[in-house]
Specification:
DNA-binding, 2 strands, homodimer, mainly alpha, two-stranded antiparallel sheet, 5 helices, about 130 residues
Chain lengths: ~130, ~130
Amino acid sequence: MTAAAKERVWTVGELAEDLGVTTRTLRHYEAEGLVTPRRSGHNRVYTVRDRARLRLILRGRRFGMSLAECREIVDMYDGAGSSEQRQLTTLLGRLDEVAADLERRADDLRRTLSEVNDVAAQCRRRLAELG
Amino acid sequence: MTAAAKERVWTVGELAEDLGVTTRTLRHYEAEGLVTPRRSGHNRVYTVRDRARLRLILRGRRFGMSLAECREIVDMYDGAGSSEQRQLTTLLGRLDEVAADLERRADDLRRTLSEVNDVAAQCRRRLAELG
DNA sequence: TTGGTGCTTGACGTTAACGTCAACGTCAAT
DNA sequence: ATTGACGTTGACGTTAACGTCAAGCACCAA
């Protein structure tokens, strides 16, 4: 038996506060199919799992992923447990494509960061000369 | 004397083709103050330097930087040659902030990439079992 | 029972980053 | 001299990702 550990849940307001976004954002993500919180009557109830998905999504957003891309990735996380060979194969192909894309972006980011640090170093040298 | 090496120049169409964007994008970037190509009469003339700036900008766009952020960074690259201590100090402060921000984004990207690779590995294991 | 707080669903507004015409100039080639 | 190919400036359209109301329900406290 999986122990019925009373896992924590959140209301929209609580979770928005926790994640540092507005309730509007959470409702928007739901409308776009990125999360599907349960309902307690009329009200949304976010579980630990919902929160985890949202954190992944918000992390993706920070380095330029669109909501559509975020949704695809979190959905792939779920599909990885499949038992159908056909499913797993196409999923794997897509995962590799996504990984390659992310690596390109990481490279772009790394180069930009490197240049920014170079410019900063140059500033420091000039300041030392003037000091 | 700096030799008057006839450096290559581009028209909008040529440069757009070269950079893989539309001419509309280049004109938009100009309207937003990210580049300021010279004019040959009525027509835009992009220099090697303009092209370099644009490549930096497009690279930034790929990992989620806004046009405003891109503009600030390329502008900072220019300001680094200043001789005014006051200027250099504030510039340096900003550069360090930007670098810190980029490092956070890089970290987010790295974690996401790592997870995607984990899921892919999981797929491969399951496929091996089913094989 | 009257607030106040927090939830709900619309529905319209906004911003960024372009796309997509329209209307016009210009220069080389037919 | 007219046809294209390429350039120019408006100006309006579009998409994504929310912001910002409005109107209404639910429950708790004074």
